[in-house]
Amino acid sequence: MNSLFALIIGVLVGTGVFLLLSRSIVRVVIGLAFIAYGINLTILTVAGLSQASPPLLTLPGPYVDPLPQALILTAIVIGFATTALLLTVALRAYQVAGHDDVEAFGDNLARTVESDLERADPEHQSPDVPDWEDDTIAGGRTL
């Protein structure tokens, strides 16, 4: 049973590293998720796979240690939040650059001293900045 888990862990981590080394942002995010799944399975395997009772006082012992299960549950929640954040960043990078190739991004999105001195054209604002007429808010108040 432990050799089966070791094989599954190796496949998950190996697939995750392979996807992490690709040039697409979405593959990088999926690779990080696979590595997280492999680490969760590693924690479960290292804790021991036993047929003992759950840690309830009404059942006779010996009991299973609940700490690895709590660590894995916490890691699942953190991994889900991290994956959602990375997918949001990947979507925004795709919207800005028009492609999801990591190598093609280069340094053209980085700020330099010369780019801080340049002023944006007021006619073509960023999609993040709302384009209000006469500085009014939807409720009719002025800024």
UniProtKB/TrEMBL annotation:
<feature type="compositionally biased region" description="Basic and acidic residues">
    <location>
        <begin position="117"/>
        <end position="126"/>
    </location>
</feature>
<comment type="similarity">
    <text>Belongs to the CPA3 antiporters (TC 2.A.63) subunit C family.</text>
</comment>
<feature type="transmembrane region" description="Helical">
    <location>
        <begin position="70"/>
        <end position="91"/>
    </location>
</feature>
<feature type="region of interest" description="Disordered">
    <location>
        <begin position="117"/>
        <end position="143"/>
    </location>
</feature>
<keyword id="KW-0472">Membrane</keyword>
<dbReference type="InterPro" id="IPR050601">
    <property type="entry name" value="CPA3_antiporter_subunitC"/>
</dbReference>
<protein>
    <submittedName>
        <fullName>Sodium:proton antiporter</fullName>
    </submittedName>
</protein>
<feature type="transmembrane region" description="Helical">
    <location>
        <begin position="29"/>
        <end position="50"/>
    </location>
</feature>
<dbReference type="InterPro" id="IPR039428">
    <property type="entry name" value="NUOK/Mnh_C1-like"/>
</dbReference>
<keyword id="KW-1133">Transmembrane helix</keyword>
<dbReference type="Pfam" id="PF00420">
    <property type="entry name" value="Oxidored_q2"/>
</dbReference>
<feature type="transmembrane region" description="Helical">
    <location>
        <begin position="6"/>
        <end position="22"/>
    </location>
</feature>
<keyword id="KW-0812">Transmembrane</keyword>
<keyword id="KW-1003">Cell membrane</keyword>
